[in-house]
Each structure stands twice: as C-alpha cells, then as structure tokens.
Amino acid sequence: MTVNLDPQLLAQLQSRTPLLWLNPARGGPLPDDAPSLDRIDDAQRRLARCAPLLAGLFPELANAAGQIESRLMPAQALQQQLGGASASGSWYLKRDDELPVAGSIKARGGFHEVLALAESIALEHGLLPHADADRRLLATLQARALFGQYAVTVGSTGNLGMSIGVMAAALGFDAVVHMSADAKAWKKDRLRQRGVRVIEHAGDYAQAVAAGRAQALAAPRSHFVDDEQSELLFFGYAAAARGLARQLAEAGRKVDAEHPLFVYIPCGVGGAPGGITHGLKALYGDHVHCFFAEPVASPCMLVQLAAGMQTPTSVYDLGLDNRTEADGLAVGQASELVASLMTPQLGGVFTVSDDELYLNLLALKDSLDAEVEPSAAAAVSGPGWLQGSAAGRAYAQGLAMANATHVIWATGGSLVPRDALLGFQEHARTLRPRRAA
Questions:
Q1: What is the pLDDT of residues 350-373, one digit of tens each?
Q2: In what order do the strands lie in the sheet with 90-95?
Q3: For 107-202, where are the E strands, in sequence order?
Q4: What is the mean pLDDT of the chain?
Q5: 133 in Cβ contact with 125 (< 8 Å)
Q6: What is the pLDDT of residue 437?
Q7: Which range is least confidently modeled, 18-32, 223-237, 423-437?
C-alpha cells in the first residue's frame, strides 16, 4: 500500500526516531457529523446520579462518594529534574493511575458505557420506575437477575477490558473480555478473579476487537463495547474535562489568552485522549493545546492524521511492527471516529521509545514517588518537546509560555503487581547511564 505521507516524516517514523509532529489542520471546523457537545453534560449527569450506586458496589469508592476522579498533583520536582531552570510555566501530574477499582483512565469511559447500558435495560423493563429513580436499584437481586440475561463484550489490550469487565460483572452481566497477545498476564488473572470471562487471542489489539465484535453480533442480548467507535466511551472520557477545570481553578491556575494550558496524554486507539481533548476544547477553545504521546512502534493516531482521513492507514502500512512495552498503547489503527474529531482540535503528537518510557517512569518515581506502568509514563516527555525542540518552539511562538500550565496525564499503574513495578524501575536504572551519555 502506498502511504500518503511526507517523505521526511515517513523516513523518521520508519526509523523509529522519536519526533514531535505538529498537526497542520488544527484550528479548522469540526466535522458536520460531530457528536453534540451537550452529550458531555449528559455523561457528567449520568456519572453523578450513579455515584451512590458505585460507592455501594465498590468499597474503594466509598471515601470518594462514588466519584470517578483523580487528584491533580503539583510536579515541580519533576519539572526541575527534567527541565531544569529552562523549564517555564508550572507542571502538574494528573493521577488517573490512582483511580480506584480499575486502576486506569479507562474507568472514566468504561464505567460510563456500562452504566448507560444498565440504565437503558432497567428503564425498558420497569426496574427503574422513572428516569430520576435512585440508581442503587441497579444493585438489587432483581436487577442482577435481569442483567444476568445479557452479555457485555469488549476487545482490549488490558485496561479497557479491566474497566468494562469489572463494572459489568459487579452489576451481574455476563462479562466477556477478548484480550490480545500484548495484554499482561496479571490483568487477565485480575479479571478472572472478578468473575469475568477472558478469551485470549494470539494476534494484536485489532484482532481481539474483531473477535469480540463478531461474538456479540452473533449472540442475542449481547452488547459490544466498541473502543474504536463508541460515543458512550468517548463522552465518558470527555466528562473528565470539567473535573480538571475545577482542579485548575482550585490551584489558582487561570486558562486564557495570557495563561495557556498544555495537556499531554498517552494515546492508544484514541478514545480516552480524544474524549478528554474534545471536552477541554469545548471549555477552553484556543487557550488549551493538547498533544498525544505514542510509542515509536505504534504511532497510529499520528499516521492517520498525517495521511489524511480519506483512507484508513495503519502503522503496518509503514512497515512498523506495533510491538512495544507500552501494552496499553500497542494499537495499529486509530479510531476513525476520534481521528476525524482530532483533525481540527489536536496540537500534535510526539513519539516515545521504549527506553524513554522506562526512564520517564523512573523520573516519576524519583521526583514524585509516583509509580506507574510504562504506557502511563509516555506523556512525561511532552513539555520537553514543546520547550526543547525546534518544532515545539515554533508551535509556542507568540504564546505566553512563562504563564503556561502543563498537565501530564498518568493513565495507569495502581493495580500493577508490586514486583512488576519494581522490575520496571530496576530496568530503568540500567538505562539511565545511556541517557546521561
């Protein structure tokens, strides 16, 4: 297949050279068929009215009253370690790696979609007597008997499967997760312990999704959570924007023409970072600048946006193998839904080598005592690209960078077994002399 990419960009991608790509289409209009923004508010209302239900289902959420939210952590120590005196603005770490129950950013979209499905079924069968009924009714024995007649199926490299599987099983659904070869064994074990059926596939993420979709289509009363095309997932992620806005205000960080906001988020198929970007752009418009982080072996969103939306383009079309230590980001083909919405909204994409992932996670551990998995550390490189590269400086020209707020999104890690976290850190220490050299 002939790939419609600039030859210099193509050569850099094929050589797996880390780079910052700036989106030339940013600032254009949204597609005519873009989902309406009021659906972000719908998602927020759903999560709010289901909070008491979540607090009852999961003891881990009791202290938070069932709210799916993570803290915004000042990251001056990380800023000093990586940027030194030349690092302008203020850095923060968004700790979705600490989200209870599912342990990752995927709780936002995954929980929202399962809750929306449960509400719909309960209203259809009269289990909820009216639209404003107490959602704790969804946890009754009668509800579990009803939901047990339905299956919820998803294909995943791990974290989305965790959020969908755990939420669906907690409500009594027959939860089925199709997992790719990239998924870690401990994630499969954790799901099985929660009563989820795990079906393993030798292929990659796309094959796991295709298998899940085929099974759901062939079975009655089966709902397939489509990570590539689901608007329910997308708006569950988008709902995170108002939470971040509230936290920034509480921290005294303005967002306007004189105080730009930069947000850096790891990207797999695109649903979570795309939803968050969509929500933030709805709130802040041109005053927020979002960048995705992707592995050098799996830059699926960069490839699709750079090639244009006329033809689906995957990393395999470039000769890349989609093999990376960032298992949650090992995706060959970006979501068409998200790519079309990101075309006018995304600032750009930077790519990260596996070695950089490990060094980033060690920097988080050493500076902030934050322990994450490799994929969750991908975005740490973002401020460095904006302030330390020619492309980044060109993007920032004319912006009030001294007043900027930089938010690095940590996407997962709290459920990773302790020995695995220590292994990540030990491996990173063997790489540190290379960075110094």
A1: 999 999 999 999 999 999 999 999
A2: 20-22, 348-352, 288-295, 261-266, 405-410, 90-95, 72-74
A3: 151-156, 174-179, 197-200
A4: 93
A5: no
A6: 47
A7: 423-437
In DSSP terms, 264 is beta-bridged to 291, 408
Stated as kind and residue range, the H or E segment containing 90 is strand 90-95
What phi and psi, each to the nearest 5 degrees, are found at residue 6? -55, 130
Average pLDDT over residues 372-377: 95
Alpha carbon distance 15, 10 (integer Å): 9
Q: How far apart are CA 402 and CA 279, in angstroms?
A: 25
Asked whether the whole model's pTM tops 0.85, one would answer yes
- How far apart, in whole angstroms, are the C-alpha atoms of residue 297 and residue 277? 23
The lowest-confidence range among 212-226, 269-283, 289-303 is 212-226
382, 291 Cβ separation under 8 angstroms: yes
Residue showing tokens 């890690």 = 413
Is-contact 274 305, C-beta < 8 A? no
CA atoms within 13 A on the CB side of 411: 34
Contact between 266 and 411 (Cβ < 8 Å): yes
Between CA 412 and CA 183 the distance in angstroms is 14
Look at residues 94, 33, 171, 86 and name the one whose alpha carbon lies nearest to residue 379.
Answer: 94
Task: Using the predicted structure, report yes or no on whether residue 74 has a pLDDT greater than 50.
Answer: yes
| 175 CB-near residues (< 8 Å, 6+ apart) | 151, 152, 164, 165, 166, 168, 169, 195, 196, 197
Altogether, the residues listed in the chain come to a count of 437
Q: How far is Cα 143 from Cα 22, in angstroms, rounded to an integer? A: 49
> How far is C-alpha 132 from the chain's CA centre?
30
Residue 84 CB partners (closer than 8 Å, separation 6+): none
Q: Are 317 and 300 in contact (CB under 8 A)?
A: no
Residue with tokens 């965790």: 162
